C-alpha cells in the first residue's frame, strides 16, 4: 500500500501545472514531500528488523532440529548426555554472541573463547567414546604433541596407540606360557563396511625391523585387529590367496619379512596355471635359502627360495602327477576346513545351529541313523546346539522332533510341507506350534516348531508373499552375478536417494508376512543353495541390508527394529515377547501331532517318487547300517578286553580308523539328496564307492574283533593286514554288484565257523552257508550235532515235470499255498487256529502321466491305476527239506523267492520273500510294484506304517486326493488289521507303499524314468541295477477288537523280533583256508 500511495503521489505531483507566482506555496509543498519520505523510511526499517528477527529464530529452530535428527551415535550413555549438554551451551553462547553489539569487542572475545573451549571438550568426548582405550587416549592426546596441528588425525592415532600400550602394560600379569585361558579378543575390530579405510595400515613393514602392533594392525591368523600371531601353529597350510604369499603366473613368491623367520618348517601351496601343487620344506640351505619338495607321493619336483621368499629355481624336476589331482585338493580342503572349523568353534560366539551337512532325509531313515549333536562343538566349546534347521528334507517326521527334544534342543524349523497344509495353518496363525508325539498325553515331548510359510527357502520366497518384490532384495543377484531375477526386476544398490523407498517396500512385505504369525517377532532368512561362496556376496548382502536397517531403525514412526541374528536369537526374542521361559510353551500357541507326508509344492506334484528311486542304494545303505552297528559292538567288546591285557596284540588304532570311515560314509549317504536317490549319476557312483569301502572296513573290524574275542589264548592272535585268520562269508566285486557268498573249504579235520549275533537277546534262527562238499556234519562248540540240510544243487539230480496245478509248502506253524499258473503265493493257513488267509501276491506296473509334467526322481505322476504284469507259465523251482522249503519263480523282470523255515525261532512264523528286480533292459518310463491282496476287512481303508523304524502312524486312503498322494515311506514295516486279524509286511529296506483298496498292501520295487521332473536333479533316472529286496509276511490273531479312535499303533512282540531278525542278520565268519588254525 505504501508503494502504491507513493506512486500516486508522484504522479499527482508531476501533473501539477508550473506556477511560479507564489514561493511560499512551493516551500510548503517541499516540506510535505520530505515528511512523507521520512515516514516511509521509518516504516520500512521496522519491517526489515522484524523480518530479520523472525528469520533468525526460524533458522535457529531448524538448525537445532537438524542437529537432533542427525545425532551422533555414542557407545556410552554418559558420553552422550555430556555431549548433548555441551551442545545446548554452545547454542546459548551463539545466541549471546549475536545479541552483543559490535562495539563491545572485549565481550565478543570472551564469548568466542568459551565457544572454542566447549567445542574442544565435545571433540575430546567423541575421541574417548570412539577409542577402545577411552579417556586414556584423551590424556595421551592432550599431554604430548607428537604431530602438528594440521595432522590431527595422525595425532589421535598415535595417542590411541600409546594409550593401548599403557593399558596392556598395566594389565599384563605374570607370564604363563602354558595357560589354558582363551585369547581375549580386541576391544573393537572395526569389522564393518563403515570403517574408514584410511586408518588401516599395512600389518608389516617392508624393512626387517620389528615393531609392536597397534590397534590397526591385523593378525593374518584370526583376522582381528590389534595384535599379531607371534608363533604360528605347526603344520599350518599357508594358502596363496592370503596376505602371506603373492603368487604370480611365474610363481614369483613374495613373503613379508615379519613372518619370514617363522615359516621355515611349514608347508606352502603354490598356484600355477589354475592348478594346485603342495610343497613342504625339504632342507634349509646356506644363507637362509630353502629347498621345497612336492608332497605328492613319488614326485621329485622341487623349488628353491632365497632369504626373501623369492623363487630362485623355478622347478628342478617336473611333476609326475596330474596337477588337478583331486586327492591333493581334497586333502588341502580337509586340512584347511578342519582348522577353520576348530577355530570358529573355539573362538566365535556360541550361536551354533544344525548345519546343512546334518540336514538329512527324514523319510527313508531309521531312528538310529538320524544324526546326533556334533562332538566337535561340544569338545571345543562345551555347548550344545539349541535349534534344529531342516529346510530341504522332502517332508518331516515327528521322530526328528522327538530326538531333538531328547538332545535338549528347544526349537526347530521346517520348510517342505504340503502347500495346502501351510495355507490352512497360516489362515489360523498356527505356523508356529508345539509339536507333540502321538502317544504323549502330558506334553513332555513338546518342542516349539516354526514352519516357513511360502514356496521355498530362497530370498524371493522368504521376505514376504510377493516373490517379484522380494527378489529385488537378494543383493547377491546384483550385476555382475551368475544369478538373476526371473521376474525381470533386478535388485539395485541402496543409497541415500532410494533408501526410503526401498526400505518402505521391503517393510511392507515384512508386515504382510507377520500377519501369518501370532507374535510381533519375524524371522527372515537371507540365503539359498550354493550361496555365500564368494566374499563379494557377503559384502553386497551385508552393506545394502545394513543401510536399510539403519534407516528403518532411525524412524520411530515405523515402529520396527531390524537386526541380523541367528535362528536361536529369533527364538529367544520370541520367548521374551511372550513372557515365558526359554523352551516353554508360549500362551495361546497350538499343539499339533502327526507327520508331514506326503509333500507337494504345487498342483498334483506329490514327492512320493523318491521313496523308491534307486532302491539298490537304499538296500546297500541298510546293509552298511547293520554292518557298522555290529562292528561298533564287536570293536567295543574287543577293545575293552584288550585293554585289560598289557601284552595284547589287538590293533585298536587301525580298526578305529576303519570304523570312523564307515561312520562318515554312512552319514554322508543319508543326506537328503543321497539316500533319496536324487543325486546325479557321478555323485551316486561316488556314494557307492565310499559305501563299499566302508562296508569292507566294517567287515574287517567284525572279523578281527571276533577272532580276538574267540581266541583261546590272546597271545595266539596275530593281526595281518593281508591274510586275516577268518573272513566274512560274502564279498562284493564293485559297489553296484550283488554280494557273492564265499565257499567254505570243508576238510576231514573240519573248518571252524564263528556266528556273531549282534542283538541283545538269544535267538534261534536258520543260517545258510556255502560249502564245497555234499556230506557235511555241523557240530557246535560243545561237540553236539546241529541239524542241517544240504540243498540238491551242484550235483546231478532228476527233474520231475508236472502239469500246472496248485502246490504248497509248510512247517509246524503255517502252510503256504501257491498258484500253479504264476508260481505266486495264494493263501496262508495258520495252524494254531486253522484259519486260511487270502494272500495273493502279484506284480504290477505304472506308466507316466500324459500331461506336460511327468514322473522323475522326485515326483510320482502315474497315468492312472496300476496294470498287472503278465506272468503266465513262468519257470518255477520248488525245494522241500526238513529245515528250509523254497519256491523260486523266474519272470521277465523279477526273480521271486519265497522261503518257509522249519525253525522254533521267530523266523518259523513268518514267510520270507526275496526279490531280485531288474528293469534296466526296459524302454523306460515304468515303475513296478509288488501287490498283496488279503481278506483283512479294514473297510475304513486305514493302515499303519512306521516312521523311521521308531513309531507307527495311522493313514487313511483318501479318494479326494490323487493316487500318488496316498503313497507313504515305509522304512521297516506296515500293517493292516480288522477286529480279528492283523497282516504285517516287514521290510529289509526303505521303499514307498500304499493301501489303495480294502485288505491290500502295495510296495514299490523299482522305477526307470526317461525325463527329469524339474525339482533340481536335471537328469533322468537310468542307472538301474539288479536290486535285491527282502520282506517278511506275518499273520497274527487279535485278542480283542482294535481301538478305532487311536491314531497310532504298535507292532507286536512277534513282529518286532521278526523285524530285528530281518534287519540285523547273524554274521557268518568262516575260517580262511590259507592261514593256520588257532585254538578257539
Automatic annotation (TrEMBL):
Residues 1-31, 163-191 are annotated as: Disordered. InterPro entries: Gal_mutarotase_sf_dom, Glyco_hydro/deAcase_b/a-brl, Glyco_hydro_38_C, Glyco_hydro_38_cen, Glyco_hydro_38_cen_sf, Glyco_hydro_38_N, Glyco_hydro_38_N_sf, Glyco_hydro_57/38_cen_sf. The lineage of its organism: Eukaryota, Metazoa, Spiralia, Lophotrochozoa, Mollusca. It is an enzyme of class 3 (hydrolase). Its EC number is 3.2.1.114. Pfam families: Alpha-mann_mid (PF09261), FLYWCH (PF04500), Glyco_hydro_38C (PF07748), Glyco_hydro_38N (PF01074). Its cofactor is Zn(2+). Residues 605-691 form the Glycoside hydrolase family 38 central domain. Residues 163-172 have a biased composition (Basic and acidic residues). Belongs to the glycosyl hydrolase 38 family. SUPFAM superfamilies: Families 57/38 glycoside transferase middle domain, Galactose mutarotase-like, Glycoside hydrolase/deacetylase. One of its GO terms (molecular function) is zinc ion binding. It catalyses: N(4)-{beta-D-GlcNAc-(1->2)-alpha-D-Man-(1->3)-[alpha-D-Man-(1->3)-[alpha-D-Man-(1->6)]-alpha-D-Man-(1->6)]-beta-D-Man-(1->4)-beta-D-GlcNAc-(1->4)-beta-D-GlcNAc}-L-asparaginyl-[protein] + 2 H2O = 2 alpha-D-mannopyranose + an N(4)-{beta-D-GlcNAc-(1->2)-alpha-D-Man-(1->3)-[alpha-D-Man-(1->6)]-beta-D-Man-(1->4)-beta-D-GlcNAc-(1->4)-beta-D-GlcNAc}-L-asparaginyl-[protein]. This is mannosyl-oligosaccharide 1,3-1,6-alpha-mannosidase. GO terms for biological process: mannose metabolic process; N-glycan processing. PANTHER family: ALPHA-MANNOSIDASE, LYSOSOMAL ALPHA-MANNOSIDASE. Keywords: Disulfide bond, Glycosidase, Hydrolase, Metal-binding, Zinc, Zinc-finger.
Amino acid at each position: 500500500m505504501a508503494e502504491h500511495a507513493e506512486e500516486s503521489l508522484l504522479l499527482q505531483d508531476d501533473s501539477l501545472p508550473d506556477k511560479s507566482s507564489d514561493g511560499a506555496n512551493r516551500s510548503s509543498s517541499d516540506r510535505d514531500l520530505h515528511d512523507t519520505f521520512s515516514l516511509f523510511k521509518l516504516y520500512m526499517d521496522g519491517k526489515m528488523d522484524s523480518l530479520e528477527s523472525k528469520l533468525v529464530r526460524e533458522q535457529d529452530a531448524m538448525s537445532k532440529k537438524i542437529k537432533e535428527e542427525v545425532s551422533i551415535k555414542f557407545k556410552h550413555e554418559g558420553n552422550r548426555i555430556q555431549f548433548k549438554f555441551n551442545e545446548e551451551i554452545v547454542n546459548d553462547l551463539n545466541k549471546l554472541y549475536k545479541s552483543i553489539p559490535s562495539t563491545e569487542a572485549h565481550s565478543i572475545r570472551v564469548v568466542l573463547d568459551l565457544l572454542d573451549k566447549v567445542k574442544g571438550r565435545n571433540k575430546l568426548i567423541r575421541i574417548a567414546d570412539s577409542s577402545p582405550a577411552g579417556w586414556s587416549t584423551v590424556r595421551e592426546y592432550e599431554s604430548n604433541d607428537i604431530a602438528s596441528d594440521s595432522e590431527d588425525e595422525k595425532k589421535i592415532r598415535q595417542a590411541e596407540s600409546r594409550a593401548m600400550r599403557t593399558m596392556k602394560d598395566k594389565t599384563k600379569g605374570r607370564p604363563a606360557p602354558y595357560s589354558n585361558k582363551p585369547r581375549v579378543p580386541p576391544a573393537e575390530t572395526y569389522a564393518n563396511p563403515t570403517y574408514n579405510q584410511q586408518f588401516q595400515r599395512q600389518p608389516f613393514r617392508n624393512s626387517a625391523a620389528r615393531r609392536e602392533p597397534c590397534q590397526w594392525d591385523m593378525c593374518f591368523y584370526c583376522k582381528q585387529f590389534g595384535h599379531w600371531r607371534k608363533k604360528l601353529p605347526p603344520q599350518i597350510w599357508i594358502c596363496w590367496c592370503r596376505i602371506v604369499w603373492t603368487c604370480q603366473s611365474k610363481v614369483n613368491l613374495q613373503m613379508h619379512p615379519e613372518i619370514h623367520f617363522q615359516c621355515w618348517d611349514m608347508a606352502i601351496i603354490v598356484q600355477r596355471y589354475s592348478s594346485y601343487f603342495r610343497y613342504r620344506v625339504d632342507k634349509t640351505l646356506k644363507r637362509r635359502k630353502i629347498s621345497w619338495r612336492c608332497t605328492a607321493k613319488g614326485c621329485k619336483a622341487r623349488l628353491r627360495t632365497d632369504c626373501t621368499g623369492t623363487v630362485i629355481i623355478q622347478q628342478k624336476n617336473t611333476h609326475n602327477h596330474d596337477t588337478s589331482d583331486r586327492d591333493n585338493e581334497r586333502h588341502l580342503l580337509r586340512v584347511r576346513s578342519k582348522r577353520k572349523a576348530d577355530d570358529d568353534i573355539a573362538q566365535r560366539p556360541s550361536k551354533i545351529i544344525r548345519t546343512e551337512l546334518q540336514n538329512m532325509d527324514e523319510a527313508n531313515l531309521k531312528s538310529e541313523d538320524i544324526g546326533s549333536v556334533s562332538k566337535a562343538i561340544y569338545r571345543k566349546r562345551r555347548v550344545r546346539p539349541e535349534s534344529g534347521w531342516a529346510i530341504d528334507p522332502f517332508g518331516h517326521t515327528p521322530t526328528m522332533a522327538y530326538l531333538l527334544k531328547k538332545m535338549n534342543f528347544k526349537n526347530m524349523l521346517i520348510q517342505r510341507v504340503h502347500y495346502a497344509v501351510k495355507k490352512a495353518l497360516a489362515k489360523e496363525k498356527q505356523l508356529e506350534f508345539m509339536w507333540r508325539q502321538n502317544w504323549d498325553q502330558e506334553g513332555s515331548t513338546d518342542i516349539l516348531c516354526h514352519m516357513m510359510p511360502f514356496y521355498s527357502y530362497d530370498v524371493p520366497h522368504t521376505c514376504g508373499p510377493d516373490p517379484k518384490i522380494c527378489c529385488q532384495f537378494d543383493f547377491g543377484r546384483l550385476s555382475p552375478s551368475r544369478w538373476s531375477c526371473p521376474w525381470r526386476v533386478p535388485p539395485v544398490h541402496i543409497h541415500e536417494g532410494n533408501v526410503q523407498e526401498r526400505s518402505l517396500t521391503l517393510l511392507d512385505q515384512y508386515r504382510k508376512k507377520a500377519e501369518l504369525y501370532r507374535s510381533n517377532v519375524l524371522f527372515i532368512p537371507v540365503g539359498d543353495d550354493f550361496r555365500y561362496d564368494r566374499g563379494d556376496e557377503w559384502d553386497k548382502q551385508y552393506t545394502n541390508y545394513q543401510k536399510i536397517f539403519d534407516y528403518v531403525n532411525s524412524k520411530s514412526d515405523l515402529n520396527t527394529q531390524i537386526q541380523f541374528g541367528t535362528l536361536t536369537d529369533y527364538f529367544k526374542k520370541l520367548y521374551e515377547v511372550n513372557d515365558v521361559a526359554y523352551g516353554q510353551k508360549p500362551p495361546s500357541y497350538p499343539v499339533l501331532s502327526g507327520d508331514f507326508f506326503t509333500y507337494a509344492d504345487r498342483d498334483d506334484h506329490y514327492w512320493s517318487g523318491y521313496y523308491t528311486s534307486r532302491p539298490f542304494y537304499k538296500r546297500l545303505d541298510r546293509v552298511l547300517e547293520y554292518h557298522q552297528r555290529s562292528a561298533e559292538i564287536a570293536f567295543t567288546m574287543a577293545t575293552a578286553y584288550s585293554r585289560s591285557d598289557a601284552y595284547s596284540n589287538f590293533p585298536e588304532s587301525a580298526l578305529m580308523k576303519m570304523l570312523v570311515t564307515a561312520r562318515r560314509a554312512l552319514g554322508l549317504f543319508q543326506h537328503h539328496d543321497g539316500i533319496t536317490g536324487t543325486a546325479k549319476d557321478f555323485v551316486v557312483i561316488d556314494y557307492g564307492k565310499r559305501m563299499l569301502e566302508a562296508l569292507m572296513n566294517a567287515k574287517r573290524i567284525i572279523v578281527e574283533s571276533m577272532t580276538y574275542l574267540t581266541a583261546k589264548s590272546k597271545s595266539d592272535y596275530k593281526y595281518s593286514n593281508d591274510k586275516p585268520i577268518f573272513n566274512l562269508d560274502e564279498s562284493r566285486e564293485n559297489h553296484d554288484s550283488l554280494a557273492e557268498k564265499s565257499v567254505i573249504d570243508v576238510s576231514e579235520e573240519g573248518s571252524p565257523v564263528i556266528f556273531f549275533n549282534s542283538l541283545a537277546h538269544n535267538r534261534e534262527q536258520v543260517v545258510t552257508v556255502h560249502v564245497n562238499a555234499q556230506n557235511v556234519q555241523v557240530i557246535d562248540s560243545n561237540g553236539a550235532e546241529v541239524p542241517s540240510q544240504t540243498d540238491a544243487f551242484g550235483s546231478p539230480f532228476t527233474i520231475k515235470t508236472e502239469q500246472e496245478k496248485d502246490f504248497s509248502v509248510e512247517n509246524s506253524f503255517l502252510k503256504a499255498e501257491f498258484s500253479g499258473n504264476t508260481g505266486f503265493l495264494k493263501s496262508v493257513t495258520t495252524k494254531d487256529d486253522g484259519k486260511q488267509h487270502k494272500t495273493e501276491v502279484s506284480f504290477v506296473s505304472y506308466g507316466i502321466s500324459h500331461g506336460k509334467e511327468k514322473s522323475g526322481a522326485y515326483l510320482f505322476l502315474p497315468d492312472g491305476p496300476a496294470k498287472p504284469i503278465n506272468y503266465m507259465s513262468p519257470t518255477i523251482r520248488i525245494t522241500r527239506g526238513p529245515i528250509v522249503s523254497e519256491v523260486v519263480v523266474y519272470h521277465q523282470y523279477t526273480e521271486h523267492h519265497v522261503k518257509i523255515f522249519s525253525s522254533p525261532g521267530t523266523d518259523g512264523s513268518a514267510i520270507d520273500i526275496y526279490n531280485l528286480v531288474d528293469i534296466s533292459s526296459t524302454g523306460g518310463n515304468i515303475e513296478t510294484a509288488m501287490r498283496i491282496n488279503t481278506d483283512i476287512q479294514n473297510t475304513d481303508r486305514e493302515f499303519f506304517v512306521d516312521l523311521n523304524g521308531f513309531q507307527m502312524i495311522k493313514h487313511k486312503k483318501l479318494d479326494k486326493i490323487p493316487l500318488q498322494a496316498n503313497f507313504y515311506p515305509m522304512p521297516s514295516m506296515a500293517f493292516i488289521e480288522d477286529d480279528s486279524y492283523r497282516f504285517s509286511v516287514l521290510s529289509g529296506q526303505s521303499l514307498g507303499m500304499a493301501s489303495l483298496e480294502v485288505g491290500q498292501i502295495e510296495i514299490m520295487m523299482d522305477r526307470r524314468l526317461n525325463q527329469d521332473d524339474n525339482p533340481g536333479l536335471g537328469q533322468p533316472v537310468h542307472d538301474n541295477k539288479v536290486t535285491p529286496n527282502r520282506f517278511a509276511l506275518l499273520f497274527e490273531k487279535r485278542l480283542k477288537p482294535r481301538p478305532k479312535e487311536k491314531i497310532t499303533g504298535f507292532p507286536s512282540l512277534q513282529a518286532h523280533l521278526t523285524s530285528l531278525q530281518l534287519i540285523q542278520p547273524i554274521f557268518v565268519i568262516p575260517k580262511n583256508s590259507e592261514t593256520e588254525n588257532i585254538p578257539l
